[in-house]
Amino acid sequence: MQNKTIAELSQSLQQGEFSSEELTRAYLDRIDKLDAQVNSYITVTADGALAAARAADEQRQAGQAGPLTGIPLAQKDIFCTEGVKTSCGSKMLDNFISPYDATVISKFKQAGAVMLGKTNMDEFAMGSSNETSFYGAVKNPWDLDAVPGGSSGGSAAVVAARLAPAATGTDTGGSIRQPAALCGITGLKPTYGRVSRYGMIAFASSLDQAGPMARTAEDCALMMNVMAGFDEKDSTSVDQAVPDYTTSLNDSIAGLKIGLPKEYFSEGLDNDVATAIEVAIAEYKKLGAEVVEISLPNTGLSVPAYYVVAPAECSSNLSRFDGVRFGHRCENPKDLTDLYKRSRGEGFGAEVKRRIMIGTYALSAGYYDAYYLKAQKVRQLISQDFKRAFEQVDVIIGPATPTVAFNLGEKTDDPVTMYLSDAYTIATNLAGLPGMSVPAGFVGKRPVGLQIIGNYFDEARLLNVAHQYQQTTDWHAQAPEAFK
Amino acid sequence: MSLERSDVDKIAQLARLEIAENDVPEVARNLSNILDLVAQMDSVNTDDVEPMAHPLEMAQRLRDDVVTEKDRRDQFQTVAPQVENGLYLVPKVIE
Asked: Pairing with A176, which of A148, A312, A336, A438 sits 20 to 30 Å away (CA)?
């Protein structure tokens, strides 16, 4: 049961092989037995899940089931969930029970999906290894000595370890694609504005975007059919028609023009990862795609520009955590400044404080032009690189990450080295483009992710390109030995 | 770029963050390293480049100036650290 995809589970439920309640119980049992090894859930909502499963079974009996009715899912703990703790991986929100649902959560509820629980994550989505979580690091199900990636590390781990058929993630600089790559699952970061950010705790508002993390591109398409769409509660939500993402999955990709950015295959890329990606590219040629080399000349500036833009926006967004209206408050504040400083000093972890401070510095009097304005200009150059590339090609393909998963503890003392593990994913966020990571082999025990980047609102094509690859390869169907 | 102890204190004050005295040297070192990374942006000339604030060229949407939210103050205040008569309590601000 635990190796079935959403598409397969949906069919089994419809044919009456098992009920949603039985399926949900089976997943809750697995979580109970196995999650201690990976630490992928912050909160498990067993009672709510069983109630939702029973309601879904009734809906099915009444002949009102959709593709996600009764399907168990895990939600990243960045999404507000009414009546359920929403911690964002932080001590600051350890006591926070959300009074409302994020739009993404409401949409899954309306679709009849069952929430199993909330997944572990880097604190406020700031991290690339899930080691900044207040609730402890998540371990990679493929190799318990390795990180799962971040910030959606818990979501990637639950999917890889078969502790949920699929999960939601968010991606500000690679936080869906990098953990998807490191955990050997399929993840999609949609175009900025495609999925509502309402009720998704904000990190960097001009970059944040939610998306699906699942075994297959087909499952990502099924989830996107629910998640995508205009929301008047999100001022940057885009009012554009949402296609049925499943209808084009089986289209032929013969004649597809794929661009390989030479900057993604240069210094810094691990040789074994490069080899796996070359094998995947050969597979695409067999499927009839045409492959050309392209250049994204400003790629090297994406990490530097990101570490101004993202911290600047984070320092502003996280000013709402002040110990007054919700979240952690220090004991016995002597005055208001002391209340703010100690509540924030105690509530935030080291990485979050670092980014707030970088952002505060970059926005402070006298430094704005040198940092924030400069970064916005570099962001424009990076975006123009992609615009030129998409005049020549349909999609861009390359590695999702420079290396496979690194060891737990390996990069925690050196923030800058940690930041560079997102070297291939960050540019997409700065430009606002959609990107995917698809399983494409292993180096030793650790998975390799193939990144596919598309033009604005071209998610259906990305899913098609990924799905076609998954019809002729089986990397996505493999399970870690300990979690089969 | 090398930040001094006094720089860290100033930034922490602006950000309303308490940084433990013992942690200041490490924070200064880490922030300096990040600013060195960021300084790589200076390698490219951007004099004639339009700054990009937002990934999509779109205008801010407007809505009618009417109340659409229900009053849920009581519910929102259940998660507040300290409230009284519908007000949020903080230490005395004006003597």
From this structure: A312
What is residue A71's predicted lDDT score, i.e. its pLDDT?
A: 98
User: Nearest Cα to A326, choosing from B92, B78, B85?
Assistant: B78
DSSP A224-282: HHHHBS--TTSTT----PPP-TTTTTT---TT-EEEEEGGGGSTT--HHHHHHHHHHHH
d(CA A435, CA A453): 4
**Maximum alpha-carbon separation in chain B:** 57
Cross-chain Cβ contact B34/A356 below 8 Å: no
Pick from A13, A97, A84: nearest CA to A46: A84
Claim to verify: residue A396 and residue A374 sit in the same structural domain: no
Chain B residue nearest residue A336, CA to CA: B91
CB A154 within 8 Å of CB A41: yes
Q: Which of B14, B34, B40 sits opposite A415 (nearest CB)?
A: B34
Domain assignment of residue A95, yes or no? yes
A275 in any annotated domain: no
Do A232 and A345 belong together in one domain?
no
Q: What does the pLDDT look like over A424-467, one tens digit per residue?
A: 999 999 999 999 999 999 999 999 999 999 999 999 999 999 99
Residue among A217, A243, A216 at smallest CA distance from A229: A243
The DSSP line for B72-88 is -HHHHHTTSSSEETTEE
Q: Which of A90, A176, A78, A181 is nearest to A132 (CA)?
A: A90
Provide, as residue numbers in chain A, all residues whose Cβ is less than 8 Å from the Cβ of B88. Answer: 324-325
Q: Which of B8, B24, B30, B75 is the best residue to mutate to test the A interface, defined by the most A CB atoms within 10 Å of its own CB?
A: B30
Q: Is residue A268 assigned to a domain? A: no
Res A70: pLDDT: 98
In this prediction, residue B69 carries a pLDDT of 86
Instruction: Show the DSSP H helices in A323-442 as ranges.
Output: 336-347, 350-363, 368, 374-392, 415-419, 426-431
Per-residue pLDDT reduced to its tens digit, A250-267: 999 999 999 999 999 998
Same domain, A307 and A363: yes
Q: Do A23 and A149 share a domain, yes or no?
A: yes
Asked if A87 is an active-site residue, the reply is no
Residue A335: per-residue pLDDT: 96
Task: Determine the average pLDDT of the residues in A13-36.
Answer: 98
Flag whether A264 is in a domain.
no
3-state secondary structure (DSSP) of residue A183: helix
Shared domain check, A352 and A403: no
pTM of the complete model beyond 0.95: yes
* Packing angle of the helix pair A217-227, A459-472 (nearest 10 deg): 160
Report the share of chain A in percent with pLDDT over 90: 98
Check which CATH number belongs to the domain holding A11 and give it.
3.90.1300.10
Q: Are residues A246 and A307 in the same domain?
A: no
Name the stretches of chain B with pLDDT < 70: none
Question: Do A317 and A192 share a structural domain?
Answer: no
Residues A97, A165, single domain; the answer is: yes
A151 is catalytic: yes
Cα separation of A356 and A348, whole Å?
A: 10
Buried/exposed code over A347-371 (b: 16+ C-beta within 10 A; e: otherwise) = bbbbbbbbbbbbbbbbbbeeeeeeb
Whether A334 is a known active-site residue: answer: no
Instruction: Tally the C-alpha atoms within 13 A of residue A201's C-alpha that lie toward its C-beta.
Output: 28
Structural domain tally of chain A? 2
